[in-house]
Write a structure and sequence with these properties.
The structure holds two protein chains of two kinds. Chain A is α+β, with helices and mostly antiparallel strands. Chain A folds into two domains: 60 residues; 77 residues, Glutaredoxin, CATH 3.40.30. Chain A contains seven helices and four strands, in the order H-H-H-H-E-H-H-E-E-E-H. A four-stranded mixed sheet of chain A has the order 2-1-3-4, covered by helices on one side. In chain A, helix 1 runs antiparallel to helix 2. Chain B is an alpha/beta fold. Chain B has 19 helices and 17 strands. In chain B, strand 3 and strand 4 form a beta hairpin. In chain B, helix 8 crosses helix 10 and helix 8 crosses helix 14. Chain B folds into three domains: 75 residues, Ubiquitin-like (UB roll) (Roll), CATH 3.10.20.740; 110 residues, 2-Layer Sandwich (Alpha-Beta Plaits), CATH 3.30.70; 357 residues, Rossmann fold (3-Layer(aba) Sandwich), CATH 3.40.50.1780. Classes of the chains: A alpha+beta, B alpha/beta. At the A-B interface, helix 3 and helix 4 of A face strand 7 of B.
């Protein structure tokens, strides 16, 4: 089954020009694929098929070779981040305080899994490692906002604030 | 030679002297010791990944992978200690723990490298039990191949041929750790990738993870249908390889027994795709001469190999006009069966079922292309591989090696030596030259062998002086070699008039539908040359060796087509191509 984010690609001409400029330099470098993908992700925020095709064509390698590298490294993502990026901490302290249930509730509310994005691009969920405020465990973040000492029952109310 | 440094070492106590840089695996072979391998393919997959070839090296911290470990002076190697045997056994048992073990009915039963090693090492197939990493949903998205990753051992041999021999790289290892799997970009189905259908991946797979999409059931259904006249025709290269499936040495020509077997399988007529090959030469040679005389697009490139055609359509669509519009021998043969032969015998083409036996899996795709139905019905109904034919023969209890020889049916079973050599790289070129040179010069050729275009080199070039003109030709087999020629043509650096391209390295004798040889044989036996020799020997002993002297072909033109390249010939024997999108 093909893997895609389901979110339409909305790259701009400026982004493409910037990427092609970087790639023109990197195609002369042996082992240029990794830095090329890092640059591409820095420009677009993620690596959708459209971007990987540009990288493949410019560097003269097949799309599968590009995708093989992208799917190998955890630092690369083929899924964009949403307008509201939700992070649920699964670090030790949060986890023992029940953040697993918290994450399950967020996933249920939004109908997507951790690592995913809603089709309208509004919400994305990430399961994070410790974010350094264990005193507030369990912790959930939405963009820069931090919500601590919450349970699954509070999730719906918090999400409603962003409508 | 004196500047090559030699290295002395001991393997299992035996003194061995080999050039520096030799691997332990190769040095052991010199000493008459076999070390088992699984992922290793000389030159293209030297990754030391599977750990089946591990050996002990005195002083080394741990066991080493002998396929990638170079020898050094004074080295002491042990290849079969209890420790080594136990390590290989454990490795195999771990592979088996994540392998779909339906060996009894697997297509590769008794011809599987994992099975053979498991037997040799006395593996306990149930020692490790746990999660399985692959979804049990085979990829059946194409007309020609099935990929079942539950049988994949991640040796990456298929990836290596796809990437380094064919240079299309549509499959690769995706994800990592336990989730690692061989698939296409974005885990797309193969049917949505720019795969060219060469099937070389099938030929190198050590297990049953890759197989052709079988059409045996369709063939059996047609044979059981009293309404159908079922015609069968084998391709040139099949007679040179089918014997291997029944234990005959590589390079045994089994044409006579093959014909008998096909008759006993119940086919109404046993004809030969070689006739289609001779016909192809008539059409292509005419097209070539016309292009030369009228200033048409040059160089003209052959169109016999459907894998090459698919490659061209995906990767070099700008060369579409360079490719001969003539159908492939398979399709010309089928078209003639359902037009000329049907009319001559007063049979409705609807009731004719044409089966071809091909060394190829791309033929399964080719027969479904557009403009491949001259009679209004598909030129070819079923295309089975050499392997599928062998399976059918075994299933029917036909004792192949005991069979007497038989002759083909007439008239569509008549062929020349020129048609036979289509199965090897350079064969189409040579056959075309025999006809083209005689046509241009108006004189009979003294010597029919064009040795310059024979042999297994990937790219061959030659020039011939004919009636004061120079004809420059090139021959390429394997897509990495085809790419060299295509780039030259694309960049305007080629001054050839005629180019033969075959998708598979060595031509159809090494096609993706041919009998599967294990990695040891592929590495140590020049099987392509042996198979090709069977065809060249048949050509050399043929009474008629020029396509234009084929009596059946002459009859076809006299009675039906008029002359090569006629309007009717174009309608029935020619086709079209399309540019395809890679993504």
């Amino acid at each position: 089954m093909a893997k895609t984010s389901g979110v339409p690609f909305q790259g701009t001409k400026e982004q493409e020009v910037a990427l092609r400029e970087k790639l023109a330099e990197l195609k002369k470098v042996q082992g240029g694929l990794m830095p090329a993908l890092q640059e591409a992700q820095a420009i677009y925020g993620y690596l959708p098929k459209e971007v990987q095709i540009i990288v493949a064509e410019e560097l003269g390698v097949s799309l599968e070779e590009v995708y093989g590298v992208v799917s190998f490294y955890a630092q690369f993502s083929i899924v964009p981040k949403g307008k509201y990026k939700i992070g649920v901490c699964l670090g030790t302290a949060c986890y023992v305080k029940g953040s697993g249930d918290l994450l399950a509730e967020v996933e249920k509310q939004l109908g997507i899994k951790a690592g995913g994005i809603t089709p309208d691009g509004k919400w994305s969920i990430e399961a994070t490692r410790c974010i350094g405020c264990c005193g507030l465990a369990p912790v959930m973040t939405i963009n820069e906002d931090v919500y601590g000492r919450i349970g699954p029952k509070e999730v719906a109310g918090i999400l409603a604030k962003y409508n | 030679m004196s500047d090559i440094k030699m290295v002395n070492l001991k393997i299992n106590g035996l003194d061995v002297t080999v050039p520096a840089g030799t691997t332990i695996l190769e040095a052991a072979k010199v000493a008459g010791i076999n070390i088992p391998t699984l992922c290793y393919m000389k030159g293209i997959n030297e990754i030391g990944a599977c750990r089946v070839c591990v050996v002990e090296v005195k002083g080394a911290r741990s066991m080493v992978a002998s396929c990638v470990y170079p020898v050094s002076e004074g080295m002491e190697v042990v290849t079969s200690s209890d420790k080594v045997i136990e390590a290989r056994k454990t490795t195999l048992e771990l592979l088996l723990s994540d392998h779909k073990k339906e060996c009894l009915s697997c297509e590769r039963n008794l011809n599987c490298e994992l099975q053979k090693l498991s037997l040799e090492y006395g593996c306990d197939t149930k020692r490790f039990q746990g999660a399985t990493s692959k979804e049990d949903i085979p990829d059946v998205s194409t007309d020609y191949l099935v990929r079942d990753n539950t049988k994949c051992v991640l040796c990456r041999r298929c990836v290596a041929v796809c990437n380094k021999i064919q240079e299309v790289a549509v499959i690769g290892a995706n994800e990592r750790g336990f989730k690692t799997n061989v698939s296409c970009a974005f885990e797309e189905d193969i049917g949505n990738s720019p795969c060219v259908a060469c099937g070389q991946c099938i030929n190198v797979c050590p297990t049953g993870a890759l197989t052709e999409k079988s059409e045996i059931a369709n063939v059996k259904k047609a044979l059981a249908d009293p309404e159908k006249i079922v015609i069968v025709a084998p391709a040139p290269a099949v007679r040179a390889t089918l014997g291997e499936e029944f234990g005959n040495p590589i390079g045994t020509n089994v044409e006579g027994k093959m014909i008998t077997a096909l008759k006993r399988l119940g086919f109404d007529k046993v004809f030969d795709v070689n006739l289609g090959a001779d016909l192809t030469i008539m059409e292509e040679a005419t097209e070539l001469l016309e292009r030369i005389q009228k200033g048409g697009k040059l160089p003209m490139i052959t169109s016999c190999s459907p894998g090459w055609i698919r490659y061209m359509e995906f990767y070099y669509p700008d060369l579409i006009e360079n490719v001969s519009s003539g159908k492939s021998p398979q399709q010309m043969f089928g078209a003639v069966c359902k037009t000329y032969w049907a009319e001559k015998n007063g049979i409705d083409p609807k009731n004719i079922y044409v089966v071809t036996v091909m060394p190829c899996i791309a033929k399964k795709f080719e027969k479904k292309r557009d403009n491949q139905a001259a009679s209004g019905y598909p030129d070819v109904d079923a295309s089975i591989t050499t392997r599928e034919l062998a399976r059918l023969i075994k299933e029917k209890g036909i004792m192949f090696n005991e069979l007497p020889d038989s002759e083909l049916d007439n008239p569509l079973g008549e062929f020349t030596g020129a048609g036979v050599i289509f199965g090897a790289t350079g064969g189409v070129m040579e056959a075309a030259l025999r006809t083209a040179v005689e046509t241009i010069s108006g004189k009979e050729l003294g010597k029919l062998d064009f040795n310059e275009v024979r042999g297994m080199e990937g790219v061959k070039e030659a020039s011939y002086e004919v009636a004061g003109k120079t004809i420059k030709v090139a021959v390429a087999s394997g897509l990495s070699n085809a790419k060299i020629i295509c780039e030259k043509i694309r960049n305007g650096e080629a001054d050839y008039q005629f180019v033969e391209i075959m998708c598979c390295p060595g031509g159809c004798i090494n096609g993706g539908g041919q009998p599967i040889l294990d990695s040891y044989t592929r590495r140590n036996v020049d099987y392509k040359t042996l198979r090709a020799k069977a065809l060249y020997n048949q050509d050399a002993s043929s009474k008629i060796r020029k396509s234009h002297e084929n009596k059946a072909v002459q009859g076809l033109y006299n009675e039906y087509f008029g002359k090569p390249g006629s309007h009717k010939a174009h309608e029935i024997l020619h086709t079209t191509y399309v540019a395809r999108k890679k993504y």
